[in-house]
Design brief:
Blueprint lengths: L1 H10 L4 H20 L1 H5 L2 H5 L4 E10 L5 E12 L5 E7 L5 H17 L6 E6 L8 H15 L8 E4 L6 H15 L19 H19 L8 E4 L4 H12 L3 E2 L1 E4 L2 E4 L6 H10 L8 H7 L2 E4 L10 E3 L9 H9 L4 E3 L8 H9 L3 E3 L1 H4 L1 H16 L5 H25 L6 H19 L4
Parallel strand pairs: 3-4, 3-5, 6-7, 6-11, 11-12, 12-13
Antiparallel strand pairs: 1-2, 2-4, 8-9, 9-10
Bound molecules: (2Z)-2-iminopentanedioic acid (2IT).
The site of (2Z)-2-iminopentanedioic acid has 12 residues, from strand 3, helix 5 and helix 15.
Length: 442
């Protein structure tokens, strides 16, 4: 196994994030590979870590002053063993091929866990939508799609939103795809409700995290009722984590952005939650605005993990919760950490949680609700009808419960009972690897 990781590192030495993602999966699936020589015989690990295809392209656009700009577009089509490539588009200056490969690799296993027919992919651009006008964002999205449309389609690759890509961007991207392809189809998910979107898609990642946390706590004879919870975002995911936690009787006491965090010991409820929902998604303001409006403390340039809590839910970006933060959380009595973002906890932070008996759930299990409802959006598009809110929510809850059970069963099977990281990796890997074996050497 060490050989495979070494080969990957030698081939692409700069791709640190990708190496980290692969290392974690290899560590977890080692017992499976030892027991089943057919995976090695068929070079499954070599193939599963190599994208089926990577597309990189030039995205020129012009700002409101007439100045031309250039960004880079990406789409990593990682694995199509289980279905069309599926995964979000991220617009953020921090992205790179390594980050998209690691996210697409994660997405492949996450999508497998949903049990829906979805392959894995990820893409986006180093474009920063923050501070841009609607017209600039539209021109960027149109230019981006003018190249991407060649490589996607409702049965080929179905992108969705991610960091920096919300309802506004999906609208502009969809409009341009439709115009270029002369086709109104389910080529993107997260669409507007009146033009092919699914009810509950917007809430799905956050609600799914809430459902998963309820399962984890109930497994240990506890519930969300009365728990104090810290989160680190204030976008779409964070907002609906708070809504579900409130509904289940918990209290969320922080929100944050890259400039600092707000501490609200009374909990984010009622009109305060309504304000949070609109802050970024409608007004594109900093989280500090919440502190100003409601007279809460704004702690500049710090992360929220220093606030005492029972449960921490990172809802922002990769590696936002490091070993120091993990130590602070543990010393403050935190009992569970659930990743609502993708890979927000560093490797040593996760190790520290495991060593100190903190229940830890990786993003590929906990935040799978988003892509799961994207899968349900595709189903509804294929049937050309829409389910009710209750119908979609019921299916989401059932899917999250199934993922929870599947993770625990897989962890038990390889002798790591209760370890959600190992469970998610093993269960996801087995589904993808078996499909690859059955589909021959492709
Ligand atoms: O990270 C994720 O799972 C997403 N950004 C959602 C992907 C999707 O296709 O809905």
């Amino acid at each position: 196994m060490a050989n495979i990781l070494k080969a990957i590192k030698d081939k692409d030495p700069g791709e640190k994030e990708f190496h980290q993602a692969v290392q974690e999966v290899i560590d977890s699936v080692q017992p499976i590979l030892d027991r089943n020589p057919e995976y090695r015989q068929a070079a499954i690990l070599e193939r599963i870590t190599e994208p089926e295809r990577v597309i990189m392209f030039r995205v020129p656009w012009v700002d409101d002053q007439g100045q031309a700009h250039l960004n880079r577009g990406y789409r990593v089509q990682m694995n199509s063993a289980l279905g069309p490539y599926k995964g979000g588009l991220r617009f953020h200056p921090s992205v790179s091929l390594s980050i998209f490969k690691s996210l697409a690799f994660e997405q492949t296993f996450k999508n497998a866990l949903t049990s829906l027919p979805l392959g894995g992919g990820k893409g986006g651009s180093d474009f920063q939508p923050r501070g841009k006008s609607d017209a600039e964002v539209m021109r960027f999205c149109q230019s981006f799609m003018s190249e991407l449309f060649r490589y996607i389609g409702p049965d080929i690759d179905v992108p969705a939103g991610d960091v920096g890509v919300g309802a506004r961007e999906i609208g502009y991207l969809f409009g341009q795809y439709k115009r270029l392809c002369k086709e109104f189809s389910g080529v993107l998910t997260g669409k507007g409700i009146n033009w092919g979107g699914s009810l509950v898609r917007r809430e799905a990642t956050g609600y799914g995290v809430g459902y998963f946390l309820a399962e984890v706590l109930s497994q240990h004879g506890q519930s969300i009722e009365g728990k104090t919870i810290a989160i680190s975002g204030y976008g779409n995911v964070g907002t609906y984590v708070v809504e579900k936690i409130n509904e289940l009787g918990g209290k969320v006491v922080t929100i944050a952005d890259e400039y600092g965090y707000v501490c609200d010991p009374d909990g984010i409820k009622g009109e305060k939650l309504e304000c949070m929902a609109d802050l970024w998604c409608v007004y594109r303001k900093s989280a500090e605005d919440y502190a100003t409006q409601f007279g809460c403390e704004w702690i500049k340039d710090k992360r929220p993990w220093e606030v005492p809590c029972d449960v921490a839910i990172p809802t922002a970006m990769e590696n936002e919760l490091d070993l120091n933060a993990a130590k602070t959380l543990v010393s403050n009595g935190c009992m569970a950490v659930v990743e609502a973002a993708n890979m927000p906890c560093t490797h040593d932070a996760v190790q520290y949680f495991h060593e100190h008996g903190v229940l830890f759930v990786p993003g590929k299990a906990a935040n799978a609700g988003g892509v799961a409802v994207s899968g349900l959006e595709m189903t509804q598009n294929s049937m050309r009808l829409s389910w009710t809110r209750e119908e979609v929510d019921k299916r989401l809850k059932m899917i999250m419960g199934n993922i929870h059970r599947t993770c625990l069963e897989a962890a038990e099977m390889v002798g790591a009972p209760g370890n959600y990281v190992v469970g998610a990796n093993v269960a996801g890997f087995l589904k993808v690897a078996d499909a690859m074996l059955q589909q021959g050497l492709v």
